[in-house]
Amino acid sequence: MNTSKNPEANITPGSIILGKWSQNQYTILRELGSGATGTVYLARGNGTKVALKVSSDSLSITSEVNVLKYLSKVQGKKLGPSFIEMDDWVHTGRSIPFYVMEYVQGDTLFSFMKQRKDEWFGIILIQLLGDLHDLHNAGWVFGDLKPDNLLISGPPPKIRWLDVGGTTMVGRAIKEYTEFFDRGFWGLGSRRAEPSYDLFAVAMIIINFAYPSRFEKKEGGWEQLKRYIDKERWLRKYSRFLDKAINGQYQSALEMKQDLLSYYSKKTSPTIHKRTKSISYHKKPNPQMRYQKKKVQKRRGYLETILIVLIMFAFYVIYLIGHM
Asked: Domains plus CATH for the chain?
């Protein structure tokens, strides 16, 4: 889905884009990426680096701007890049729409992981699933979810979304996708925008991490993907989550996030897990015991949350030490 032959994808470094309405001026520095809905450039405006997307499709531009504006309103979250402005650029006698957004700096997901322990991958996945849950609750699906559209900024390390061009309202047809991360390509579901579509892509990101060069589709389906999962030792520990996500068994991103939280809390603190399981239930159930059981479950939830916070804090300290 590359549109490099389109006029908007051939703007050379040093070119000046002047907003027709705002009269704001942007100097193109280099191309950041090109997709089905246009091309994104690194530019400089008002002494600041920004990301500028140019497209001949005014409807796509308007749709993406609406998504960016909405993401900026999600309480307590900074999901996508911050929206700056939308305008038109008069070039060779025609008006070309563009919009300007925050230039998010950081490392790509896989580059970030190269010098870090495996547990960091779980922390990033938990962050991603939490953000997807907020997006889905708002009535949107990310759509073109892949490592290229994820960046780790910080410190502290925080996952950010780069390109919202594929973001689609729930219930509609996915408008932009990449085959390897698309369940329709593998014959494992429709291209209808729903939470399970994004969760399939999360599973494929995990598989892609184990197979950086990816692999070709042969017969497709779960059987081919399962063979690759079983063949890679690192992937096998995620097999239960991958099975459920690939086959559409998760009802929400929150459900998958809770599964991963539970897995990592047991892995990092087996003693706490054993203690919560060792409570005796051999006596005949009674109201007092049911009350006690609820207290234990509630306490266990608190402990799992505290564990994850402690894990993230510990890795953050390691991160800071390593960059001093």
From this structure: 7-102 (3.30.200.20), 107-266 (1.10.510.10)
